[in-house]
Design goal:
Number of domains: 2
CATH topology of the largest domain: TIM Barrel
Structural class: alpha/beta
Oligomer: single chain
Number of strands: 18
Distance between the termini: 16 Å
Largest sheet: 8 strands, mixed
Amino acid sequence: MAYLKLNTRALKHNYLFLKNLFGSHKKDWGVVTKLLCGNKLFLKEVIGLHPDCIFDSRLSNLAMVKKISLEIKTGYIKPPPTRSIEELIEVADISFNTQFETIEMINRYAEKAGKVHQIVIMIEMGDLREGVMRENFVDFYARVFELKAVEVMGIGANLNCLNGIMPSHDKLIQLSLYEQIIEAKFNKKIPWVSLGTSVTLPLLLKNLVPEGVNHFRIGETLFFGNDLFEDSPMEGMKQDVFMLYAEVLEVMEKPINPTGYVGSNVAGEIPIFEIEDYSETSIRILVDIGILDIEIKNIKPLYEEYRLEGGSSDMIVLDVGKNNHNIRVGDMIPFHINYMGALRLLNSKYIEKRLG
């Protein structure tokens, strides 16, 4: 059976790397766990690192966090659905908001529960996903400050997730200036200016994050150790927090080129083959994972000489050349995976999850 392994030592290494980095720059931060899809085994490992806050975009995932630890602070990082406000108040201490009508409902339910719910108000900064328009944000804050059961924890923004708009020094300064306007106009302290995500982290390393931007929400870089600006490994971090292992089902020498009439495969694609020598052969192996579990573009064999030939719903085919590693039926083949690959695997009930 294929399984996904979380390397606990690599996870701890990356967490401490980030903790020291943010501490040296005097920035607050929290861990985004939406990648983990509420997996209890893996969430326990993250919670055991004692982050200041855990952020997620699914209420069921935050419910699992609270089930593991009632003490840890939790944040819901997308505009809350109105039909789920009561559950939101139960499992999230903070939520990120853009609609005044939703905030009014949060205020009503929080008051009924005898709580004060903290909110971050998101501002539209150019990526055109969520956020209050900049020309409206002062009036928006004025209305929110009249509510009694919500506390404005911060001003925030999102970049890069929809249209690929990258964070810049200028955009970071703009957001910190908006926070200063709010504090000056309403005589209110706004603790967080939150535009720091994994894609913003390289700017911090280059000292291009202004002092006013003081809060980061980090997921992908923690789990993959990547510089998302350069799409490359980040120096000092581990890239093997997650590894996929798939069992070998078949090992056979076969022709390199298929024979017969070519039609659409299971993915609806029509393969194209460069036929040079029908007699040429290589060792091909089948592994017990398929495109139902992960897209082939999101995995890479640990052994660089192995070539992914394609896959069907439940199996993937690899060309292993002369089989120099002496792969046999029953062996487990290791694969590197990227963020989207891990997301699919963690959401699959067919893939076992293990610690290592």
